[in-house]
Automatic annotation (TrEMBL):
Domain of life according to the entry: Bacteria
Pfam families in UniProt: TrkA_C (PF02080), TrkA_N (PF02254)
Keyword Repeat in record: yes
One of the record's GO molecular function terms: potassium ion transmembrane transporter activity
Annotated protein name in UniProt: Trk system potassium uptake protein TrkA
GO annotations of cellular component type: plasma membrane
Stretches assigned to the RCK N-terminal domain: 1-122, 231-347
All residue ranges annotated as the RCK C-terminal domain in the record: 142-226, 367-452
Length: 457
């Protein structure tokens, strides 16, 4: 595909790296020449310096025959105008824009071809808020991903010494939990992927990805690690867009406090949040944390727009006794450095957001894509269309489907029914199929599997 990306910031650069690695024709536009040079040195892409909303700049970037425009600059208005220009002058088929300001997002009918022609809206703050909320709702999980409107979840956990399944072969999973069906989709051991077989033995410290119907997730987690008690007390460091949205999303289920440095913003939050306690001060103020009984806090979540402040306040909270700490980290180089040490979970906004973009770049009928382990692996939800003659998957048991290397089918959702995938499971038309791909170079093969042959038409 020929794709133009507006904005070479964290999200734009991550998207460019992801898509360039899949042999797409990528052009990145930004006003910052230095940033473009660094990106151009690192990736096989074209770069154009200028304002992405200008028709001349878009034409220079190849908008005349581009398949897609992805506008992810830091300015909502620039992103919106760029989509308008691409639609009006260049008839660009797919226009994706990052729009952060909730004042735009609450107006129905604004983003239509007759008004502002944007096909796909991305709100990173909302994506990250949902991501953190799922982690809070599932204590002990490293990652929680929803498929088929939340009917199925893919969960990553670290296997602990003493877990019932640690040291056992995977085939014993069914004996341990006769009433629960689940499938281990992948195991990462010392950062290397292992494709699970029946005789694969789970070791302590393995990162295990498993698929199950959402109500069964907690039961499966208890087999791999000591179940953590439910979260009750949450402290959010930073009352910006993400902090405010997260507090709104969880304040009815948990006891929530927000620490906000800016007194005016703290005052605004106090007036607009119903049950959240708002504290005006610094999240790295040791006395304040002690005063607020940090040792009784279940989760300390640092979500300011400053990576260093998030890292330092989370480490301090952990040292002072918080049970689990999370930190929002924009710089990808920091994420692997800090996660798993004093910081339990490092959240990368660009990695959380990139799945939304990839969903619309993938061919075949792909309805959900999640980037896993910093982009090394992917979880995909695809819909099986066609019939037994035109489709490579319909009417076949899973054992007979020629899956690309390193690919596993984890679950199938048929109407309201969740079927965990086994060798004998037969895929039917309109099934939602959840796949796990541990080697990104086989993504195109997976897409081709779910494309309908011409005989169907």
């Amino acid at each position: 595909m020929k794709i133009i990306i507006l904005g070479a910031g964290q999200v734009g650069a991550s998207v460019a790296a992801e898509l360039a690695s899949e042999a797409n024709d990528i052009t990145v536009i930004d006003t910052d020449g230095q940033r473009l040079r660094e990106l151009g040195d690192r990736l096989d892409i074209r770069t154009v310096q200028g304002r992405g909303s200008f028709p001349t700049v878009l034409r220079q970037a190849g908008a005349d025959d581009a398949d897609m425009l992805i506008a992810v600059t830091s300015s909502d208005e620039t992103n919106m105008i760029a989509c308008q220009v691409a639609f009006t002058l260049f008839k660009t088929p797919t226009k994706i824009a990052r729009v952060r300001e909730s004042a735009y997002l609450t107006r129905g009918g604004l983003f239509k071809n007759a008004a502002v022609p944007i096909d796909v809206l991305i709100s990173p703050e909302q994506v990250v808020t949902n991501y953190i909320k799922r982690l809070i709702d599932n204590p002990g999980a490293l990652q929680v991903l929803d498929f088929a409107d939340g009917k199925v979840q893919l969960v990553a956990v670290r296997a602990y010494y003493g877990g019932p399944l640690v040291g056992q072969e995977l085939r014993f999973l069914r004996q341990h939990m006769p009433g629960v069906d689940t499938r281990v989709a992948a195991i990462f051991r010392k950062n290397r992927p292992i494709l699970p077989q029946g005789d694969t033995v789970i070791e302590a410290d393995d990162e295990v990805f498993f698929v199950a119907a959402t109500p069964d997730i907690r039961a499966v987690m208890s087999e791999l690690r000591r179940l953590e008690k439910s979260n009750k007390r949450i402290i959010i460091a930073g009352g910006g867009n993400i902090g405010e949205r997260l507090a709104e999303a969880i304040e009815n289920r948990y006891r929530v406090k927000i620490i906000e440095k800016n007194p005016a913003r703290a005052d605004y939050l106090a007036q607009n949040l119903d049950r959240t306690v708002v504290l005006s001060g610094s999240a790295s103020d040791k006395e304040l944390l002690i005063e607020e009984n940090i040792e009784e806090v279940d989760i300390f979540c640092a979500v300011t727009d400053d990576d260093e402040a998030n890292i330092m306040s989370a480490m301090l909270a952990k040292r002072l006794g918080a049970r689990k700490v999370m930190a929002l980290i924009n710089n990808p180089a920091y994420v692997d450095l800090v996660q798993g040490g004093e910081i339990d979970i490092a959240i990368s906004p660009s990695q959380a957001t990139i799945g939304t973009l990839l969903t619309h770049v993938r061919r075949g009928d792909i309805v959900n894509v999640y980037s896993l382990r910093r982009g090394a692996a992917e979880a995909i939800e695809a819909i099986a269309h066609g019939d037994a003659r035109s489709s490579q998957v319909i009417g076949k048991p899973i054992r007979d489907i020629k899956l690309p290397p390193g690919t596993t089918i984890g679950a199938i959702v048929r109407d309201e029914e969740v079927l965990i995938a086994h060798d004998s499971t037969v895929i039917e038309a309109d099934d939602h199929v959840v796949l796990f791909v541990i080697d990104k170079k086989h993504i195109r093969d997976v897409e081709r599997l779910f494309q309908v042959g011409l005989t169907f038409f």
